[in-house]
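Section 5: illustrative case.
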């Protein structure tokens, strides 16, 4: 979500949330005196400039694949976008604690696999985005994996036992 000041007591919030009414209800729940109105309009996100193969190879996240309620910003490599000195906001204490004590247990990785493992990789619960077809020696999927799944700096095993190698990570 991005915010832009439009003048005294007026803000424009933009979001790639795939359910605008759900976002509006959430805002209304936590904003007690503010008047909230929601309008839908399409604004291309960062992932729109890439083919799916390029997006995966560059570890570019998109909604709803990676940006959703299942993952927090630190798992997706978005820590550099957090305003650590900002005042109170929902989730601030949890995110700060995870960062301070290095308790982030999962991380977004761009991975590749052997051709014989491609279909098994597709069914792994770790995978958030995967190419339609296998491309040899190229990144084929994005996934949020437990750091404990790393068997070395460049290899990991998915939740369903598929061996993959790490091409890059969202850090």
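Designed sequence:
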């Amino acid at each position: 979500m991005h915010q832009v000041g439009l003048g005294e007591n007026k803000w424009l919030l933009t979001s790639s949330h795939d359910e605008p009414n759900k976002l509006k209800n959430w805002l209304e729940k936590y904003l007690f005196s503010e008047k909230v109105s929601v309008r839908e309009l399409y604004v291309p996100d960062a992932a729109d400039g890439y083919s799916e193969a390029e997006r995966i190879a560059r570890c570019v996240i998109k909604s709803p694949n990676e940006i959703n309620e299942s993952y927090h910003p630190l798992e997706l490599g978005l820590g550099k976008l957090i305003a650590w000195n900002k005042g109170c906001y929902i989730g601030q204490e949890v995110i700060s604690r995870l960062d301070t004590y290095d308790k982030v247990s999962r991380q977004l990785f761009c991975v590749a696999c052997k051709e014989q493992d491609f279909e098994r990789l597709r069914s792994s619960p770790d995978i958030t985005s995967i190419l339609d077809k296998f491309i040899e020696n190229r990144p084929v999927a994005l996934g949020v994996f437990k750091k404990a799944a790393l068997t070395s700096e460049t290899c990991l095993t998915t939740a369903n036992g598929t061996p993959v190698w790490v091409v890059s990570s969202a850090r």
